[in-house]
Amino acid sequence: MTTVLKLFLSFIFATICHWACMAFFGEVGITVNVMLIFSMVVCAYLKPEFGYPTVFLSGLFLDFFGVKLFGCNAFVFTLCACAVYGLEKRLDFDGVIPQIISIFFLTLGAGLLNLLLLKVFTGFSAWSGFWPFAAGITLNAVLTPFVFKILRRVFALEIKIS
Fold it and tell me: What is the C-alpha separation between 111 and 123, in angstroms, rounded?
């Protein structure tokens, strides 16, 4: 029960951070997806019975407040969670370099998949340009070690034992 409470409070904190980053960086067209980072860190540290629902609900939460294809973030976040759980035996998520590299490529894949799904299902895509896209991916990667460090402290007792 304490894990669920910690997840809920962490979700609220991640939502506030996501809103703050969107308000700050949105002015220049850069999208920093703090909810994706939060969700992937939860997957890296907790068992799938906590990770998958958290990831899906985080994506669905963004879908409720987004103006694009409903369910797209929930689907993309769930695919990213599958990738994290598939890579957990191959990557040491305690190291800063694997954290940065994994979130960099997951953000890149999530962004491109979002564009593809928009194009396929709506006939158009919302491309803000290469530099804002690259800046968002890079900022996600830079924020990643801090999110890992915070959530490692929060879930110190619940971290899965391999």
Answer: 17
Question: Is the Cβ–Cβ distance between 155 and 3 less than 8 Å?
Answer: yes
How far, in Å, CA of 67 to CA of 125, rounded?
12
Query: What is the pTM (predicted TM-score) of this model?
Result: 0.89
Q: How confident is the model at residue 68 (pLDDT cuts 50, 70, 90)?
A: confident
Yes or no: domain 2-154 corresponds to CATH 1.10.1760: yes
Six-digit token pair at 30?
């850069």
Of all residues in the chain, what percent are helix, strand and coil, respectively (each to 5)? 75, 0, 25
How many Cβ atoms from other residues are within 10 Å of residue 39's Cβ? Answer: 29
What is the pLDDT averaged over residues 52-61?
Answer: 94
The amino acid sitting at 156 is: A
